[in-house]
Write a structure and sequence with these properties.
The complex is a heterotrimer of chains A (257), B (261) and C (263). Chain B is built from eleven helices and no strands. Chain B is mainly alpha-helical. Chain B has one domain (2-258). Chain C has helices at 2-23, 25-50, 61-87, 89-94, 98-102, 108-114, 122-139, 146-169, 179-189, 201-208, 218-226, 230-262. The chains are: A alpha/beta (257), B mainly alpha (261), C mainly alpha (263).
Chain lengths: 257, 261, 263
């Protein structure tokens, strides 16, 4: 990346990246943030006027100018995270790795942090790589999403691509227990858009109880709902049904199933 | 009562989860003080050519060293440092919500591995002791005293750790206590080596009840009546320690709570 | 220039530590008190022993006190500049804070080992030297220009401690509970508190080679009081070099393991 091999960690590469981890602090607990930034200035060899200008810009954007001289331990979690960010950005990296930046933050602080990241990304054109379990982080910030599962990439695309516009999830319970192929044949949908919950071996055994009526999920366009329902009703009897808005969280859950 | 058992089991599992490290620690803390002692006797008797020091000859010294090992293993435990750390970092607040005494909880958790070691030392001491003609009653009595010493040591530590309510670096007090204990408990040298005019130094602290007392009794240097007298003293110290904890913790807690934790 | 940059970084670390310590003024007193008590306990031990024997393995009482003075100042030197950094070393790896250091454009070990400076411990260096000066004459130390040698030997003592402490800390890359090994260090460290000639042959051989705790103060004190044989000088140099390379290899392999585990 950036024309370097990250595992070699060449100095020039290290000058161009930054790492922020939500749970690990690089700032000194007992010192005001400015003193820690001063050390970073020396480490990255930033000329003082440039350093001052950047610090001013970042502190203003994040609205923490008045806290710069407060001991880190006296700051709130949100303010501390903002200081961590300033510390990470003070050398103007080209690539910023953020690991769970909003972990433990309240909704307001997380929102402000996201706004800042968006703004910084727009102003400085720096690449921001974000790993997060918080779907809001991803929906609000990311233009490209990679979903990993045990080391393998199982999705690569936009956040919107995961939840296409006008798409929804139809949940139906039937008297009968058709297979995916039978359903695909009846509805004319691709088998990949149909998902049978709990199609485990015990369901196949066909015990005569409630388990027979597991919900079936169809991913389809809003406009198609009525047509599909009609097709289903020609062959099967519907016990009940519902329509779900697909949040990113749902989508990813589905990807993992 | 139930939580005490749970804490004991938890502490035990915690200490022995990594068996190799646990073994390392036990061996390290047994081997090194013994080696240091032996070195001194070696230097005094073998290199220096002395025959008798403070009424003890070389084999008396080595005997003292070996027997004292049994009790050195029981004394201490650094769970008072844990208390101090909890106060300092504010983790204490988590425990205040639970219906258990923090001081007691930390002690029980921390002493669990010591109980195991005490059991091993007792068996070892009794079986090996039998071979050398040492009375099992004496060894059991000595172990009882050492266990009371373990409680005493923690009581003092727990009381001292309340200084963490006031200062960031309360562990210094605990360090100082441990340094004094290392010499005045008799784990480095038999305390009767102290010259007459310096004997008061170890007599004014309860530390000699940790290692020196048990060792002397187990070796038969103390009579039964003298031992019982000393055991009574250790109970007096226990009561004093308990009062000391009550006092310092109520002071510290008052301060902690008024500062909003 | 790289050296200038490192010096500048170190300067800021010193400044920041100064600011930090100014916040905890009580710490200043307690840290001092702790060491005074420790020195007191060690002196007391030998006072008790010398109340029973006049000479111990060829060391007179003032000579042992001189040895203790050298030991305290060499140890305080280590405490001042390195102690706390090594305490935090395992956290650095276990809590993954090393990740951040690895992204910095300076050597991660430099940052890891320069972060905490215990400025108040400088007092203890002076205290140790005070004891050494006090007993220099009765111990038979020539003094004069040889005080310069004291400085050199103190540095060797500190270097030994750094290399040994590092070799005991580095296992954090391989085992989660490396504190057990670190504690073992402190157990062995006890060997440094007595002159090496007091030890039986096997232990003495050990602390002069594989676990060179004798270099912390025993060898320095002997060199200053009586001088050493050439073979002994060569031994000091050889063992320290060997430890340096051993540590370098351990660090490289450990780091590789760390990086492949965390990425």
């Amino acid at each position: 990346m950036l024309g370097f091999d990250p595992f070699q960690r060449p100095i020039e590469f290290r000058r161009k990246i930054a790492l922020v981890m939500g749970q690990k602090a690089q700032l000194w607990w007992d010192l005001p943030a400015v003193d820690a930034f001063d050390l970073l200035r020396a480490i990255y060899d930033i000329p003082t006027p440039i350093y001052k200008e950047r610090l001013h810009t970042l502190a203003t954007l994040l609205d923490v100018t008045k806290h710069l001289n407060t001991q880190i331990r006296r700051l709130s979690l949100g303010e501390r995270m903002k200081m961590e960010l300033i510390g990470a950005l003070i050398h103007w990296p080209n690539v910023i790795f953020l690991d769970e930046p909003t972990i433990g933050l309240d909704i307001l602080a997380a929102h402000k942090l996201r706004e800042f990241l968006k703004e910084f990304n727009r102003l400085e054109k720096a690449t921001i790589i974000l790993t997060s379990h918080n779907m809001e982080d991803i929906e609000k910030l990311c233009s490209r999403v990679l979903i990993m599962r045990t080391g393998e990439i199982i999705y690569d695309g936009t956040a919107n691509g995961l939840t296409e516009k006008g798409e929804c999830r139809l949940r139906v319970r039937l008297m009968q227990s058709p297979t995916v192929d039978e359903l695909a044949h009846v509805t004319g949908l691709a088998p990949s858009a149909i998902f049978l919950q709990n199609k485990g071996p015990e369901a196949a055994a066909g015990d005569d109880d409630e388990d027979d009526h597991k919900p079936i999920f169809f991913t389809l366009k809003y406009d198609n709902i009525v047509a599909i329902l009609q097709k289903i009703m020609t062959t099967y009897t519907i016990i009940n049904m519902g329509i779900e808005e697909p949040s990113l969280e749902n989508v990813i859950q589905r990807l993992f199933q | 009562m139930n939580w005490r058992l749970a804490a004991l089991r938890n502490g035990f599992q915690d200490a022995t989860a990594y068996r190799l490290e646990f073994l390392f620690e036990v061996l390290g803390s047994a081997f090194v003080p013994a080696a240091i002692q032996w070195v001194l006797w070696y230097a005094m008797f073998k290199i220096g050519g002395a025959h008798e020091i403070a009424g003890m000859n070389y084999s008396d010294m080595v005997q003292y060293t070996l027997v004292s090992l049994l009790f050195t293993q029981i004394r201490g435990g650094d769970h008072d440092f844990e208390l101090q750390e909890m106060i300092r970092t504010g983790q204490l607040s988590n425990y205040l919500l639970r219906p258990v005494s923090v001081v007691e909880f930390v002690y029980i958790r921390g002493m669990a591995p010591k109980l195991l070691i005490a059991g091993v030392c007792l068996t070892l001491g009794m079986s090996v002791g039998l071979f050398f003609g040492m009375s099992p009653v004496r060894i059991m009595g000595a172990m009882l005293m050492a266990l009371i010493g373990n409680v005493l040591h923690y009581q003092i530590g727990a009381a001292l750790s309340t200084t963490a309510f006031l200062w960031e670096e309360a562990y210094s007090f605990l360090m100082v206590k441990n340094m004094l204990v290392s010499l005045l408990s008799g784990e480095l040298i038999p305390l009767n080596l102290f010259p007459k005019n310096m004997q008061w130094m170890w007599k004014i602290t309860p530390f000699y009840l940790y290692v020196f007392g048990p060792t002397q009794y187990a070796l038969g240097h103390w009579t039964h009546t003298y031992f019982l007298e000393q055991l009574a003293w250790s109970c007096v110290w226990l009561a004093a320690g308990w009062a000391f904890i009550k006092f310092t913790w109520s002071l510290g807690m008052g301060r902690y709570l008024s500062h909003g934790g | 220039m790289k050296l200038v940059q490192y010096a500048r970084i170190y300067g800021i670390q010193v400044k920041n530590n100064w600011v930090r310590e100014a916040v905890y003024r009580v710490n200043f007193l307690t840290a001092m008190a702790t060491d005074v008590i420790w020195i007191g306990v060690e002196l007391l031990l030998f006072t008790v022993i010398y109340a029973n024997v006049p000479v111990l393995a060829g060391w007179t009482k003032p000579q042992v006190y001189f040895f203790l003075g050298i030991f305290f100042s060499s140890d305080a030197l280590f405490t001042t500049f390195f102690q706390r950094n090594f305490w935090n070393f395992s956290d650095l790896v276990n809590k993954g804070e090393l990740d951040i250091l690895l992204t910095k454009p300076v050597h991660p070990l430099f940052l890891a080992l320069s972060r905490w400076i215990n400025i108040t411990a400088i007092f203890n260096i002076a205290l140790g030297l005070g004891i050494a000066i006090q007993f220099a004459n009765p111990a038979g130390f020539a003094g004069g220009w040889k005080w310069l040698l004291v400085a050199a030997w103190l540095l060797i003592g500190m270097t030994t401690q750094i290399l040994l402490r590092f070799a005991f800390s580095i296992w954090v890359f391989w085992t989660e509970r490396s504190w057990a090994i670190s504690r073992l260090y402190y157990q062995f460290f006890q060997f440094a508190t007595k002159p090496d000639t007091m030890y039986p042959k096997a232990i003495r051989y050990l602390i002069l080679t594989a676990l060179p705790f004798a270099f912390i103060s025993s060898i320095p004190a002997r060199a200053l009081l009586h001088g050493l044989k050439w073979s002994e000088y060569a031994n000091v140099g050889g063992v320290l070099l060997a430890f340096f390379f051993l540590n370098a290899i351990l660090w490289q392999t450990g780091l590789r393991r760390y990086q492949s585990a965390s990425s």
